[in-house]
Each structure stands twice: as C-alpha cells, then as structure tokens.
Amino acid sequence: MDRNHNHPADDLYVTTPGGSYEVIVAHGALDQLPERLHRLGLRGAAWIISDDQVFPHYAPALIERLRAVGCNARGFAVPAGEPSKDLAMVARLYDWLIGNGVERRDVVLALGGGVVGDLAGFVAATVLRGIALVHLPTTLLAMVDSAIGGKTGVNHPLGKNLIGAFHQPRLVLADTATLTTLPPRELRAGWAEVIKHAVIRDAALFTHLEAITDPASLRGESLAAVIRRAARVKIEIVNIDERETGERMLLNYGHTLGHAIEAACGYGDLLHGEAVAIGMHLEAQIAARMGMVEPAFVERQERLLRTYGLPTDLPPGTTVSDLLERTLRDKKVRAGRVRWALPQGIGAATVRDDVPETVVRGVLEGAQRCCT
Ligand SMILES: NC(=O)c1ccc[n+]([C@@H]2O[C@H](COP(=O)([O-])OP(=O)(O)OC[C@H]3O[C@@H](n4cnc5c(N)ncnc54)[C@H](O)[C@@H]3O)[C@@H](O)[C@H]2O)c1
Fold first, then answer.
1. CA-CA distances (angstroms) from residue 179 to 31, 141, 142, 186, 227?
2. Cα(50)–Cα(23) distance, rounded to whole angstroms?
3. Domains, the chain
4. CB of 302 closer than 6 A to ligand 1?
5. Which of 272, 289, 332, 339 is catalytic?
6. C-beta of residue 7 within 8 angstroms of C-beta of residue 13
7. Beta partners for 345?
8. Is 22 labeled as catalytic in the residue annotation?
9. Is 38 annotated in the active site?
10. pLDDT tens for residues 11-46?
11. Could you tell me the sign of the dihedral formed by the alpha carbons of 180, 185, 188, 193, in that order?
C-alpha cells in the first residue's frame, strides 16, 4: 500500500527504509486496536507485554476486546521500572513466548512507557528472528519520543541501552486517556521532551506551549493535539535519518549533559526528563557562549521549563569534574570530540563538535555557583 497516498495532511506517518507506519494519537485510541490490527493484516495471536503498574489499568479490557473478535490475546507484566530493561527479563519473555507457541505471524503489543517499549520491542525484534510489533505508549515520553523511530534495546551492567536493534513497529497507537493514571511527576518529566522538540524544530509549538498557563489542566483533544505536534517533530527527523547518522542527533539536545547528570545522581533520584530539562538549560547556555543564541533565549526556555514543573538547577552533590568526565565518555563522542546538539534559536538546532571544554566547564561552574 502506498502510505503517502490518500491520507489527510494532519495524519502522522513514519516512512523509513526499515518500515512505514501510522502514529495515531487520540483520546480513546485503544478502542480502535482490534480494527487496526485487522486492517494491517495482523491476524495471528497478540502478545501483550506491559509492566505491573500499567497492566491492571488497561490490559484486561484490551485482552477482552481482542478475544471478542477472535484474536488469541494474552499478557505478561514485568515489574515496573528501568531494572526490567535487561537481558534476564528478555530471556523470561522468550520463555513465555516460545513456551506458549509464538508464531511468525503473531504480534507483540508493547503496552506501557519507554521501558516496556524498548524491552518488548527488542524481544519482538529478535524472537523467531523478528515478529510484528505495535506500540501502545502510555507515558507522555513514550508517545512523543520512544515509541516512534524503531530503536529498541536493553541495558548492560556497564551502561544504558548498550544492547539493541532497530525494529520499526507496524503501528503506534497512543491513547491519551491513559495519561490520566500516569503519576504527575512522570507526566511532567515527559514535557521535557515536548519542549525539546519545540526548541529544535517547531517554533509555533514553543509559542503554543508558552500560551498554556496551566499544563496540568490540559485534557482530551487539546492535550492530544499538543502531543501530535510534538510527535510530528520526532517523525520528521526519523523520516530523514532512521539510523542516527545526522539529523537524528538533534534529538540529543539536553541529553549530553542530561545523561551525565542522570548517571552522576545514580539513576533513580532524578527522572530522565528532569535530567534532560537541566541538560537543556545548561546546553542552552553553551549555545549562548558559542554565540548561537541570545541570552534572552536561555531565559525564555528556562521560564517554559519551569512552567511545566521541570527543574533547571544542578542537583546538589554533582561536581563539575565528574560531569565533564562523564560527558567525554558519552556514546555520542566521535574521535574524541563531543558532538553537541545545540539550539540556534527557537525552532532550530544544529550539531557542533567544536565546543571547547573551557566553555562547558564555564557553564557548569556557573551553574554550580548558582546552586550553592
Ligand atoms: N527507544 C527510544 O527511542 C527511546 C527514547 C527515549 C527514551 N527511551 C527509554 O525510555 C525509558 C523511559 O521511559 P518512560 O519515561 O516512559 O518510563 P517508564 O516506562 O519507566 O514509565 C514510567 C513509570 O510510569 C508508569 N506508567 C507508565 N504509564 C502509566 C500509566 N498510563 N498509568 C500509570 N502508570 C504508568 C510505569 O509503570 C513506570 O513506573 C528509558 O528506559 C529510556 O532509555 C527510549
């Protein structure tokens, strides 16, 4: 089927060499699942992989709905949280799937946040050399970011996301009604990725976010519309650069220092999105020192991050030397140079590998002075 044909301009489509698929973001979207699977020709068994926080809310009704149309659906809930994203859990899921007779024509349904998406995605990419995958994201982060683009994987004791595969889903179905049960702190952390997308590629989204005075009150279609807009940024970038050789690097804005801060805090104290928010604030200051943005940009972005309940200060206990050392070890370092995704203004960003260490050190030292 030619997916570039006959769909309204408003629809969201990923078209990459690894696969083409629709991203649907709507209140109540999960109701459409049986019909959508049918339309995609996914008529085998459905294997729902979720976590124990999400499963009780949404999996029983989903299983019932799928069984009602004759689909053999069953579910597995892993313990919620990042520790489940490891090879031991992959092995347990293989046991469950293979032990229950999984077939090539079946589909894995990843029902949850980024942890479940990455884990279930990797299992789908590898079991029987790869079966169909559908993402049913239930966190804001997963809806605008992790469910789109085909990156799957698990952690290794020596580092995050070191084992994985590209495996594009056949569909992303994001039901914004699921966000009503998401803990408020997790929701706020997801806004960091929305703001990141606005900064790197969508100035109108940034202005729209600024006009929302109480983000917690966003509901229904107005929330879905913002999520669609943020998802579109990720889709556009993935469509240009599936394998992160160029444009996709821009999505790392806030993540170079964000990852260093997350690791320095020992994963757990800060949520990923919170660390990214702090990283964005620091990296905006790097861009300002490099003459890429005005100081007013830094203030404007900080105001928005704070409106969405996100931190911008370095957490206590982090040291400049530790953060610098961790930054140099980042996966995105090439030939000894850190590749920074930096803003050039609201709605535009570029990758720079010529940021002097003294600039980074200056920003970190300034941030530390502010926090003590
Ligand atoms: N593949 C990618 O491109 C990509 C991109 C960004 C992040 N990630 C990965 O995503 C992960 C983080 O994802 P996350 O922030 O979604 O965290 P998560 O999956 O751990 O979810 C956060 C918490 O919210 C709970 N939860 C999720 N949805 C819920 C709902 N609707 N109602 C109630 N509780 C709910 C979960 O049980 C969990 O406790 C990391 O492992 C990160 O590496 C992957």
1. 15, 11, 11, 10, 11
2. 19
3. 12-181 (3.40.50.1970), 188-230+244-371 (1.20.1090.10)
4. no
5. 272
6. yes
7. 348
8. no
9. no
10. 899 999 999 999 999 999 999 999 999 999 999 999
11. negative
